[in-house]
Design goal:
Length: about 220
């Protein structure tokens, strides 16, 4: 049986592919592996059966035979290690690609996430007007550094890898800032043009459109 992943039954990103199941879908598409999706409502995420898979009540989860994983980074790393297409065969290049996965999640994503969520969740708070520019400035520090490293290269370290996959999914949440970073914007566009990305995006968009019709 193919692996099973979980995703939002009705995603709050309105079909833009920002939910973290997109990372896993994309990785499986890059690896050429079929998969099934189990859709979850927000209430179902807190039910005992799901908490047995993900103790924090989130998505995605990944079930493959007796293996159960949570956390999108861990799942993508597992896919890259099990199937060809996401991690280089050369040990040093492989280690660098994994390093970029960690950089995306631990260094670049936190300030981008903070800036994006503050604009969504704190816009009615009296401190938002003063706090938002501070958060965006922190995100720009990382975007400046990343843009300098990327330069005119197509990908972060040689060929496309899981490091690029994770980084692009992080940068897509910073779309409002990328207009000031043409090299990063072009980098994201290159990744989005990949057939595997297109298949993954279309698959998650169908879920949103179905939920919208049923609402």
């Amino acid at each position: 049986m193919p692996p099973v992943i979980t995703a939002f039954e009705s995603s709050p990103d309105r079909g833009r592919g920002l939910a973290r199941d997109m990372r896993v879908r994309w990785a499986l598409e890059e690896a050429g592996q079929p998969y099934e999706v189990r859709l979850k409502s927000f209430a179902a995420l807190k039910a005992p059966d799901h908490l047995a898979l993900h103790p924090f009540g989130q998505i995605p989860t990944f079930e493959d035979g007796g293996l159960v994983l949570f956390e999108s980074g861990a799942i993508v790393l597992h896919i890259g290690e099990r199937y060809p297409g996401l991690l280089p065969s050369d040990p040093d290049a492989r280690a660098r690609a994994i390093g970029w996965m960690f950089a995306a999640l631990d260094t670049v994503e936190p300030p981008i996430w903070d800036a994006a969520m503050a604009g969504l969740l704190e816009s009615d708070k009296p401190w938002c007007v003063e706090r938002q520019p501070i958060l965006e400035a922190r995100a720009r520090v990382r975007l400046d550094q990343l843009s300098r490293h990327l330069g005119d290269a197509d990908w972060l370290d040689g060929a496309f890898s899981a490091g690029d996959l994770m980084m692009v999914t992080v940068l897509r949440r910073a779309s409002g800032l990328l207009a000031d970073y043409p090299k990063l914007a072009a980098y994201v566009a290159r990744a989005e043009a990949r057939p595997a990305y297109q298949r993954a995006f279309a698959a998650q968009l169908v879920v949103f459109e179905g939920a919208a019709r049923d609402s």
